[in-house]
Amino acid sequence: MATTQQKSAGGGFFSKLIVVALLALTIALYLRIVMVEGDSQTAGQASVQVLEGDEPAPRAQPLTELPETQMELILQVFAPEMLEQ
């Protein structure tokens, strides 16, 4: 005895439409995050200075000790075993 299954004709189309909409949304968000606009503010916020050409590299600033409270917080988060000593 053969049984038949009923399929909703719109179910497959609707799910494909949802997948395409989510894919388009993902691509739009990705492009919004990745694309760099020509703002002058973002150019000044770079953490690494890029050298173009043969100019000498800027001199590095001397290292300074962190405040004791900041050092203690870093040790609490990343190396709590060092505080037990």
Report on this structure:
The protein has 4 helices and no strands. The radius of gyration is 28 Å and the shape is elongated. It has helices at 9-34, 40-43, 68-78, 80-83. The chain is 53% helix and 0% strand. With 85 residues, it is mostly helical. The mean pLDDT is 79.
SSE layout and pairing:
Elements: H1 9-34, H2 40-43, H3 68-78, H4 80-83
Main features:
mainly alpha, 4 helices
The total count of helices amounts to: 4
Q: What kind of sheet is the major sheet?
A: none
CA-to-CA gap between the ends? Answer: 78 Å
Structural class: mainly alpha
- Shape call: elongated
Q: What is the string of helix and strand elements?
A: HHHH
Summed up:
Helix content is 53%, strand content 0%. The chain is mainly alpha-helical.
